[in-house]
Amino acid sequence: MLRKLQRVYQLRCTWSRTSIVPRRFFADVNDLNRIKFEEDFSSSHIETTRFQKFLLAVGSAAVSLLDPMRADMIAVMGETAGDTAIKYMLQKMQSDNEGQEILRNRPRINSRTVDLEKLRQMPDGTLGRTYIKFLDSNKVTPDSRLPVQFVDDIELAYVIQRYREVHDLFHTILGMPTNMLGEVTVKWVEAIQTRLPMCVGGALFGPLRLYPKQRQKYVKYYLPWAIETGTNCKFLMNVFYEHRWEQPIKELHKELHIKALQVPKS
Amino acid sequence: MACTRKILEVIKRKLIPNYGKQRFHTISKTFAEVNQEEASSKETHFGFETVKETEKAEKVYSVFETVASKYDAMNDAMSFGIHRIWKDIFIQRLSPTANTHLLDVAGGTGDIAFRFLKYLNVAGNLSGSVTVCDINNVMLDVGRSRAEKLGINGKQISWLQGDAENLPVDDASFSAYTIAFGIRNVTHIDKVLEEAYRVLRPGGRFMCLEFSQLNNRMLQWMYDQYSFQVIPVMGQLIAGQWKPYQYLVESIRQFPNQEDFKYMVEDAGFRHVSYENLSFGVVAIHSGFKL
């Protein structure tokens, strides 16, 4: 026993005498996240002139309309056409405590940063469990989000990267599936909250591709609910989802002023 | 005669390995090491980037692997379809006959080979044979599936994977050698030209179609603006890739101009070397004969 204590004492002394280098292991995990994002950003960033950004914005808008399956074009349109909107989102995040925390820490959501197995073990009704159920039933993965390429400022680049990665969480909280109807509804909420041209375009042109029955439901139930939720609920980008995996969804709804949509079965 | 040959064989097989092995090996090893060091420290250009010579081939391979599936669509978009006319003129300048055995190097998706066969297959008379050689298997796969779709007879066309600097082909086995839009991607242009000289029969013709420099400064400026501003954007919109097309426009600027390339072809041993500009010099056809 004495030997064990002596050993512990020795270790404590050596640790306190060590240099800065091993102390990095105890450094804030969030600092590493910040630095990791800077590395990712510099490896995926592409220099573009204003003319090229303009061409990309117009071209990606056209291609997204013609072929909505081109997710990369929708992403490029979000980056290039949305400069004012991204600045607005950054300003809204900077004026909120939780938003500031997100900007400081720069968390990422992908299969390496989020323990999906742990989420599966969580009790039903929590955010984590509902999110993983959403991913599994719609067969989507959090790794499918492209890195930001055409935004030059790193703060703005992080905002748009965060927007892409929490899109699935928006689906989860709003209870919308990934079919055309669900996507259009989420786009309406996002358009009202974020003001991104890509979301506005999706919200206005998306319904043109709905089947007649879906369109009726859309006009009667989904659209009014989406507009009401978008205007009344709290700014969804300001929610630090990674700290709220155990929070029950109902409680989260109350906090964010969201009323779940009830569609009467006809 | 036969006994001297046998003695030489014995010397080669038994005496040198057993007697001189150690010394031979250490000497050759040091030479190889020195050569490797020189080669690995030598640098070349990859677009406007500077890379080690040993890395360039890999990087070019991955560029073409990435763009293979949208290669033809992008060619049409970037040149507004004019690349078809350039290739048609190229084959007309070659003027192949039924006896021409063509080796199309860096032929990838088969544009030149198909045009060659079409030129000869007049009035349903099937003639001519072409071997398409490319270092990149993905591009060859695209070419093979295009050939199937066009219903081209397998006897007339064969697909070979190989490096233009070191062709897996015997000496003097072809009567025509073409390389279209491929030579600017190689690491050592002079080696490719030497290999071309080696595999051609005497009387054989070397032809190269490649991007070149315009003779008019104003037009060159407009071409530069179009290349650097628009083409990578097109690559992103159509193929979802920016960097391969940035490499494309940069590699065009790094390639020697018409006169310099003509001297390089002459250095490799070709005679009666000439060039013809198409589209004000956007592309040039260089031609030389092994005499």
Which terms summarize this structure?
heterodimer; A: 266 residues; mainly alpha; 2 domains; 14 helices; B: 291 residues; alpha/beta; Rossmann fold; seven-stranded mixed beta sheet; two-stranded antiparallel sheet
Describe the structure.
The complex is a heterodimer of chains A (266) and B (291). Chain A has 266 residues and is an all-alpha fold. Helices cover 67% and strands 0% of the residues of chain A. Chain A has 14 helices and no strands. In chain A, helix 4 packs antiparallel against helix 5 (71-81), helix 6 (83-94) packs across helix 10 (154-174) and helix 9 packs across helix 10 (154-174). Chain A is globular, with a radius of gyration of 22 Å. By secondary structure, chain B is of the alpha/beta class. In chain B, strand 4, helix 7 and strand 5 form a beta-alpha-beta unit. The longest helix of chain B has 23 residues, at 217-239. Chain B is globular. The two termini of chain B are 34 Å apart. The A-B interface holds A 46, 49, 51-52, 55-56, 59-60, 63, 70, 72-73, 76, 149 and B 229-230, 232-234, 236-237, 240, 242-243. Chain B: Keywords: Membrane, Methyltransferase, Mitochondrion, Mitochondrion inner membrane, S-adenosyl-L-methionine, Transferase, Ubiquinone biosynthesis. Chain B: Its main location: mitochondrion. Chain B: It holds the Pfam family Ubie_methyltran. Chain B: It is a peripheral membrane protein.
Layout of strands and helices, then pairs:
The complex is a heterodimer of chains A (266) and B (291).
Chain A: H1 2-17, H2 20-23, H3 29-44, H4 50-66, H5 71-81, H6 83-94, H7 97-105, H8 116-121, H9 127-138, H10 154-174, H11 180-194, H12 197-205, H13 212-232, H14 249-256
Helix pairs in contact in A: 4-5, 6-10, 9-10, 11-12, 11-13
Chain B: H1 2-19, H2 21-41, E1 43-46, E2 49-52, H3 53-67, H4 71-79, H5 82-94, E3 101-105, H6 111-120, E4 129-134, H7 137-150, E5 157-161, E6 174-180, H8 189-199, E7 200-211, H9 217-239, H10 243-254, H11 258-267, E8 271-278, E9 283-289
Parallel strand pairs in B: 3-4, 3-6, 4-5, 6-7
Antiparallel strand pairs in B: 1-2, 7-9, 8-9
Helix pairs in contact in B: 4-9, 5-6, 9-10
